[in-house]
Design brief:
Number of strands: 23
Radius of gyration: 29 Å
Strand content: 15-25%
Number of helices: 21
Bound molecules: adenosine-5'-diphosphate, magnesium ion
Oligomer: single chain
Amino acid sequence: MPHIQQLSPHVADLIAAGEVVERPASVAKELLENAIDAGATAVTVELRDGGMTYLRVSDDGCGIAPDELPTAFLRHATSKLRTANDLAAIGTLGFRGEALAAISSVSRLDVFTRQRGAESGATLHLEGGVPGEVQPAGCPEGTSIIVRDLFFNTPARLKFMKRDSAEATAIAGIVNHLALSRPDISFKLIRDNAETLHTPGDASLRSAVYAALGREFALSLAEVSGRDGALSAEGYVTRPLNGRGTRGMQTFFVNGRLVKSQLLTAALEEAYANRIMKGKFPGCVLSVTLPLDTVDVNVHPAKTVIKFVNEKQVFDLVYHAVTDALEREAAPQETAKPAQTGFYRSMTAEQFRAAQEAKSAPRTAPPAPAPRPFRTAVPAVSLGELGGRLRVSDAVRREEPRVPCAVRPPEPPRIEVPRPEPIRIPTAPAPAPEPEQTALMPPEAPAWRIAGEVLDTYIVCEDGERNVWLIDKHAAHERVNFDRFRAQETPIMSQTLLTPLVAQLGAAEYAAAAERFDLLERFGFACEDFGGNAVLLRAIPADIDETEAVATLEELAGKLARGQDADPAAARDDLLATLSCKAAIKGGWKSDARELRALVDKVQSGEVEYCPHGRPVKVKLTERELEKMFKRIV
Ligand code: ADP
Ligand code: MG
């Protein structure tokens, strides 16, 4: 056994640095938090090559006294804590006194700083944590820290870095979040010489949301404001009809600190239970404020994990505040309920007739949807709607407001516009017919008899051997789609939209999507960069309803953003599963008889057993089992 020795301070620093500084984004986060703690009103982040070669954070905060400059870079050196008692009530973002030490030990770092009101400033250069001399410097009030060649002395760490673009995206995410947490501070992000974010710093959360998350998202929000004694929850949540495909647009702050909290997510989502479509997630920018001593932020070095002393109180506060906001939203427009309540059941006779008519023939444009006020003035009609197969459910859904419309009117009151002439496109090619409806292998055994459909979800069948089968029609259709997509070598057939849709994505999702427009094209989406984290959709997969297109893209982008390093085949399957799901008939939709027949035949042939997520598509009840249930036999 080698002798036991205390590690040299340098090695100890490198080990500690690994915890604080995982990647360029963690450097940006720490430096930005310092700027905020220093009382800055404007902060600029500039980066090159994903922050690996150059990352600068400049603020107009209080500055550092020249004689304290070397101290700031020592481990456990902080101006924010004095005694152990202070730990119980932390009001600044930093407090561990580790960041500057850690960052400087794994980079080449320059700091320029001038205290407010001071005649001149000072600068210091550190290389691998070793400081040079403090020099006088002419610089503006505030602090500017430049980090170059991150991890130059820790090659092992360097190997784990993702592509520059992924690192840059992660930094953009951090800046976005901090900008949302502090609408009173103006944040600017310059990425490889291009300004990609600039928030006004006018103290309005809505304008920060607008700048950071885009116009479409900002317009989809309901205001939240709740209080319970010393606790408060403020901010915005998306209206139920603007649910997102992922949780990527949920942002929580606790006492101004960005946090990840299952408790807060659960409280938020609980408030949407029965209001939002299945598979949709609310978006939010929610800020919870509570006494400093009722929350522990010192749980994890990155400080994104927190513990609440009174979890139930926090849960209830957020749940009720969000519920109130949603109820206020819903009150004046009670009719705009999402479809998840089973719209078919609530159809009036008139609607039913309209649906039947729509089903039996006219291939004209559907009624014009409400006008879309910006960027697009023409009602949206897709080729799919003009020439595609119409389902009863399609027609019924048209009775509903066009729900997940990508570009929404800013205000609820709808202006009556003269309905335009139906648009006819005589030469419009119809999308490919569903192959499973025509290209079926007739099964050898007598076809299962379809006894009917129950709960608008399960098909009930009887086979030739006196067994009863229950088939989950959505799961079965999902699998059929999945197999079809997967077997296909050519790109997935797409339908061109007459009016493009706009998908507003979260920063990470957007960057991931923008990088893989080629892949999305193979999946049937013709995408264009629309700026401000938005993607313009000119064509969508032919199998996907136009109303589902944006949500589908959101979900695909979410998966791209999360699973960049996964095995490519598995990643492709995962994406195809999303597409298959979106293209499948839904539980709760009324399906026509031919559609059910086609599915049942597929299931009977044994071709589809499990949905792409692994759930079974069919359940068998033998006659004997039924007899047992009824105590006909024992
Ligand atoms: P912590 O933020 O946990 O105190 P850091 O290592 O991040 O530890 O910073 C050490 C100290 O350096 C801070 O406590 C603060 O006094 C000073 N400091 C760091 N960055 C700035 C800045 N941008 N403006 C003013 N002071 C700063
Ligand atoms: Mg700090």
